[in-house]
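quick one: 5'-O-[(L-methionyl)-sulphamoyl]adenosine bound model?
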Amino acid sequence: MVEKSKQTFYVTTPIYYVNDVPHIGHAYTTIIADALARYHRLKGFEVFFLTGTDEHGQKIEKTAAEKGLTPKELADRVVGRFKELWKQLNISCDYFIRTTEQFHEAGVQKIFQKLLEKGDIYKGTYQGWYCVSEENFLSEDVPLEPEGYKICPDCGRKAILIEEESYFFRLSAYQQPLLEFYQQNPQFVRPQTRMNEVVSFVKQGLKDLSITRTTVKWGIPVPGDPKHTIYVWFDALHNYLTGIGYDWNPELFQRFWPADVHLIGKDILRFHAIFWPAFLMAAGFPLPRTVYGHGWWLKDETKMSKSKGNVLDPYLILKKVGADPLRYFLLREIPIGQDGNFSHEGFVQRLNSDLANDLGNLVQRTLTMVFNYFQGTLNEIGEEKEEDRKFASQFEETRKRVVEFYDDYALNRALEEIWTYLNVINKYLADNEPWKLAKAPESRPRLARVLYQAVCAIKATSYLLYPVMPETAGKIWELLGLKQAPQEMPLTDLKFYDFRTEKPIPKPEALFPRIDLNEFIGEMEKQNAPDKLEPKAEVKKMEYITYDEFKKMDLRVAKVLTAERVAGTNKLLKLQIDLGTEQRQIIAGVAESYAPEELVGKEFIVIANLQPAVIRGIESQGMLLAAEAEGKPIIPFFDRELPPGTKVK
Ligand code: MSP
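yep, here:
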């Protein structure tokens, strides 16, 4: 493996599917990555933090069709939601990649071509059970149901049997190299339990992997054979290379590859810990240092996911408490690697006790005393006593441990240490009783010393908190009257005795208001709207089209001859329609509002000259017009019968 410069740190999140808006689970991975990125910047590393969206594949194609959008339109809508959320959560990513970007597509094709020439990719025929929702062929050990089909073990939906010509990646050839690699790099998969899972899976034997589809149109075409599109996972994983310059900025690429850590949820471990290193070995790239598989956030003890309908909307929580408390809760509550249950009670309780009480009160009380007793300016500090020295050296120990934990990606442990020290500060104040010292004029130097000690401790501790709570750390430094922001000071400069009054400390405001549990629950439930795909997106200016552009649309009256449901979806109907001069077939996403028999004989408007599209493997030759009300389609019908084919102008 090529050893890269120690001074760079490259961290990634999975790129998220754009078939739905982001939820707490997506936010979790991205917040972990952000905390690690910020920490490494404090350490003076040159950091590259990559996140983005996974925009190709059947899942996106299908959702888009159901919404009456093109896949790109769907992606453009949803991507705005991700970017907006990352902004609100203070995610400091260096680049947000979209797999529909041209440079990414070109990079993937280039690698595909390279592996084809090398013989690691070859053409064959694939037959297998495919889960459309998970974009994945089921493993062969999934049993056949008595009715003759298979059920996807991940999402519980019915899989479909697919047979197609396909290009294969020679994964079987990498079984031994992978096992050797795992052995030599025990930190490659973390936590250890996940590494064990991966090793035992690989030991059972690896089969070649089908990496193209002819049934999916929405994907990167195979170079020289465009009826095949590249399997969305082959496409997506390579974002980690294209996002830092592969094939367009060799210097950047050289500087940051290999990645230091790919953060992922445990659901996508095999893709990252088996396929990905095998693809990289085949293409001759050095391998990433660590794939860290974190646990799931559960709601009511089941994994939060769109298909289960139990996702928590981060926008709502953010609106109520702001970014830092949410970041803190997610990182503090569970060790990376374990599952956690998100309950409103647990959330509010932790915020009130850790943030409002332990941290918020401490800062407010201390600074209020500095303001009240010294008009915000601390001079004539009395001598350092033994207990002060001890208090300072306890911080040094805390600092050491916090740094070790951050270095080890153990963010919850780092936070625990910080909180232990916050309690030490609280105890120091309780023991020294500055409010009593304030009563006797001769104790002023001691009073100044005690408050100085506390202020030094608050400054240094909030610095350690910066990676997880950047806004709060910045605010505390501002309240302390400091001109510098925490991120402007390198970690190596951190010392306990490092406070000088730069500006008088003003009367502080509360950092974290206490949250009322009942009110919080009420607000969360009230606003838990069912479908949030509609973009809160940027308000767009009206874009006018010319009359000539409108005239290009051939709108016609169509009469429904037959109608039936499309198997495996509850949104689509297959309609045979009469257009006067010809008969057509269209796939319409109206099944949630109309039963098939209800539509037979009805007339509505279709765009007759819309380019045909394949939806769920069935050709749709046109599109009907419908309004969307509360997420459901409503078809405008005529108030009298018209000859099919009548032009609508
Ligand atoms: N597009 C793929 C990833 C391709 S990476 C080359 C994908 N996308 S996803 O939108 O489904 O997001 C998956 C990731 O979101 C998980 O790996 C995890 O990081 C995060 N989470 C989604 N739900 C989650 C929870 N309920 N809990 C914690 N994180 C989870 O898979």
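The pocket of 5'-O-[(L-methionyl)-sulphamoyl]adenosine is lined by residues 14-17, 25-26, 28-29, 54, 236-237, 239, 264-265, 267-268, 296-297, 303-305 (CB under 6 Å).
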